[in-house]
Amino acid sequence: MRPFTYSYVIKITIKNMMECVSKSIDKTYERIPELADNRQASNDIFLALATLQRIKLVLIELENTYSKKGE
Questions:
Q1: Neighbours of 10 (CB within 10 A)
Q2: pLDDT digits over 5-57, tens only?
Q3: What is the value of pTM for the model shown?
Q4: N or C: which end of the chain has fewer CB atoms below 10 A?
Q5: Other CB atoms within 10 Å distance of the CB of residue 14
């Protein structure tokens, strides 16, 4: 039987979420030139990027919390 620990599950989940957020940030940045002439889309892009950056900061804080615990 494989071992199971709470900290392992949380660390892997944070890692996977960070990868998803980073991918979303990259894909959103790629759309900037395509939608530069559309004011509403440009506003949405920058709102999305700001929100994704906030999510990333929360994940970094969680990542730091769990790595400091040494779990």
A1: 16
A2: 888 899 999 999 999 999 999 999 999 999 999 999 999 999 999 999 999 99
A3: 0.83
A4: N
A5: 19
Rounded CA-CA distance 43/50 in Å is 11
Dihedral sign, Cα of residue 19, residue 22, residue 26, residue 27 = positive
In 3D space, the residue among 56, 64, 70, 63 whose CA is nearest the CA of residue 19 turns out to be 56
- Taking alpha carbons only, the member of 12, 14, 24 closest to residue 50 is 24
The set of residues, in sequence order, having a beta carbon less than 8 Å from that of 71 and lying 6+ positions away, is 5, 6, 7, 11
Where do we find the tokens 């030139």? 33
Nearest to 8 by CA among 49, 69, 56, 61: 69
